[in-house]
Design brief:
This protein is an alpha+beta fold. The protein folds into two domains: 216 residues, no CATH class; 256 residues, no CATH class. Strands 1, 6, 7, 8, 12, 13 and 14 form a seven-stranded antiparallel sheet that branches. A five-stranded antiparallel sheet has the order 5-2-9-11-10, covered by helices on one side. A two-stranded antiparallel sheet has the order 3-4. It is elongated, with a radius of gyration of 30 Å. The two termini are 57 Å apart.
């Protein structure tokens, strides 16, 4: 198949001074008047309640002719963005490269949202919505437009453009005014040369730009190919992507001083317990739940109350998410580690109780508080027929719990009777069903509207479900594998 013909530029302009100014009229004026050479890797900083990059609004740029292309929405042909590139640059691969490194922050897998060591390595300069200056009407880029102009002639262009309406500015020999209608926030990206010495391309887009529905002149299809969450999961598994969620979890509690400052003094992320208090990992032979048990817990949903049932008859329940085949073992292991750490932390110290009448209040001391998790736990402990889980082999689970406790009992033997052990098995099953129901809401595919594929749960969903639920985290937080993963724990040992 023959290659498509070179794209036809919508405009051209020439650079002869080795630099360009960019931005709103006030930005370009600042860039023209600045004396110092602007760095090509400004790092983000906190400015009040937002994060911005300190910009001088001028950059070193390749001399010669720059081609300018309108990026259009494929369905409506309306302008969705602009791309300018030096004539020696292959425009389409350059644009695709920039989008991979730092694309629209409103799209999935958009790369880095701020300038970083990685964006510098990949030769992209990031400019975001809060980086622009304010024009006389009081708003950054209120006309949804910005200019790109040879720095040596920038002051004259500002004077000329200021006398014209934005739609009349257009392109001339040494500069171009770019507009995207019906947008609120503006973003830009410069593509740099291999030596990071000068810019060779420029992308302008807005919060309304959808690169999955935006095309380049003369090119078939959109600039990015949309994938559902499940399709992205399949691709990620093939690429060896990590879905454990350990690194994702760490990012939630290991915050930088600036991030903590942004959150304010009244909020602090939940921290892991000291390593001396973490429990596990456990041998797989000790797991209290078999695979078939965990599949039953995944499928279980408690029957709604009568009033709730009548209200919910109007809308069918979404299909329950499945465990991903390639990660089932890791998911089963994580759930067992959570369950067993709960048993060791909260049940083992009360193994001397011989009857439910004393074991229940000891295990769940806050059971009289209707808002406390203990009140729900003691209901499951004491009420064997209230909300049974169909098919769950409670005698097998309770026997495994007893054996697990006995191996750790030391000089104080396990006195819990069978009713107490069965009640404990129901409680642990309840905690796992709550965890899995929350993980189900996070499953890959829940945000896709077509519903044509089964939603998928991976270990990271289990970790996020527990971490973001204060009640569950309070009783499941002592699992070492929850915080660090099995492999890391084994390596540490």
């Amino acid at each position: 198949m023959a290659a498509p013909p070179p794209p036809t530029a919508d405009a051209r302009f020439d650079v002869g001074s080795g630099a360009v100014c960019f931005g709103t009229l006030s930005d370009i004026r600042r860039g023209a008047e600045a004396s110092a050479q602007a760095p090509l890797d400004p790092r983000p900083r906190l400015a009040g309640t937002v994060v911005e990059h300190p910009l001088a609004f001028h950059v070193a740029a390749a001399n010669g002719t720059w081609n300018v292309f309108a990026l259009r929405h494929l369905a409506t042909s309306s302008v969705a963005g602009w791309f300018a590139a030096h004539a020696d640059v292959d425009a389409v691969p350059e644009l695709v490269r920039i989008l991979r490194v730092s694309g629209s922050p409103y799209e999935y897998e958009h790369g880095d949202a701020f300038n970083s060591a990685e964006t510098r390595r990949q030769r992209v300069l990031v400019i975001n919505r809060y980086d622009w200056g304010t024009d006389p009407d009081g708003a950054p880029g209120a006309d949804n437009g910005l200019g790109l102009v040879d720095r040596a002639l920038a002051s004259g262009y500002v004077r000329d453009w200021a006398r014209r309406k934005p739609g009349q500015r257009g392109a001339s020999s040494h500069g171009v005014w770019l507009c995207v209608p019906d947008a609120e926030y503006m973003f830009a990206r410069f593509g740099l040369d291999d030596d990071h010495g000068q810019a060779r391309s420029f992308l302008f887009f807005t919060d309304r730009t959808d690169f999955f529905r935006t095309g380049f002149p003369g090119q078939p299809g959109p600039l990015r190919t949309y994938e559902t969450e499940v399709q992205r999961l399949r691709r990620g598994l093939g690429e060896g992507r990590d879905y454990a969620g350990v690194d994702e979890l760490r990012k939630l509690y290991e915050l930088s001083p600036r991030e903590l400052q942004d959150l304010g003094p009244s909020w602090r992320p939940e921290q892991p317990p000291p390593e001396s208090e973490r429990l596990g990992p456990y041998d797989a032979a000790e797991h209290v739940f078999r695979e078939q048990h965990l599949e039953l817990l995944r499928l279980y949903r408690p029957s709604p109350f009568l009033g709730q049932a009548s209200a919910e008859q109007q809308e069918p329940e979404p299909a329950i998410a499945v465990f991903v085949d390639a990660l089932k073992g890791a998911t089963y292991e994580l759930l067992n580690e959570l369950a067993m750490s709960f048993v060791e932390r909260f049940v083992l110290p009360h193994r001397m109780h011989s009857a439910p009448s004393t074991a229940g209040p000891a295990l769940f001391p806050h059971h009289d508080d209707a808002d406390h998790l203990d009140s729900h736990c003691i209901d499951h402990f004491n009420a064997p027929h209230a909300r049974p889980i169909p098919g769950l082999d409670l005698p097998s689970v309770s026997a495994r719990i007893r054996a697990f406790l006995a191996r750790r009992a030391g000089d104080v033997p396990v006195s819990l009777d069978q009713d107490s052990l069965t009640g404990i098995a129901r409680v642990v099953a309840f905690l796992m069903t709550e965890t899995l129901e929350l993980a189900d809401k996070l499953a890959f595919g829940r945000d896709d509207s077509d519903g044509g594929e089964a939603c998928c749960i991976v270990p990271s969903h289990v970790r996020m479900a527990v971490y973001h639920d204060a009640d569950l985290l309070a009783v499941l937080r002592y699992s070492a594998v929850f915080w660090a993963g099995r492999q890391r724990q084994d390596n540490a040992g």
